[in-house]
Amino acid sequence: MTTRKALATEALSLPEPCPLVEFVTLVSGKWAIPLLYRLIINDGPIRFRELQRAARPITQKELTKQLRLLETRGLVHRTVYPEMPPHVEYEATHVARQLLGSLESIAAWMRTHGRSLHSKKPAAPRRTTGHPPPEKSKA
Description:
Elements: H1 4-13, H2 19-26, H3 32-42, E1 46-47, H4 48-54, H5 60-72, E2 76-81, E3 87-92, H6 94-97, H7 100-119
Antiparallel strand pairs: 1-3, 2-3
């Protein structure tokens, strides 16, 4: 059986980049993961305004930017209907839907721990050397 420590040691010695760093790069942006999650759980097409209401307080500009980014990365499919006024719908792709279990786990973790983590004050930086700080010169 492989231990966590062995896995961590193995991960540090691998020449390939960390997949979580790649994931964060793929879905970068404050709104990317919440939008993607909303599109996945909607389980069907959703119009721009409905998505904007569901993701409040996101601005129209930011929503457009994030949806375009997710679309170019293959996580969102955009359908434009040629009518007046234009009718556009967004939907999570099949690949994006495979993230549902992982995103639900993260959401459950936040429901359990989020409040306690947000309420903690940042700790003062720890000293790691054990040596006293250098004295300031008196000029």
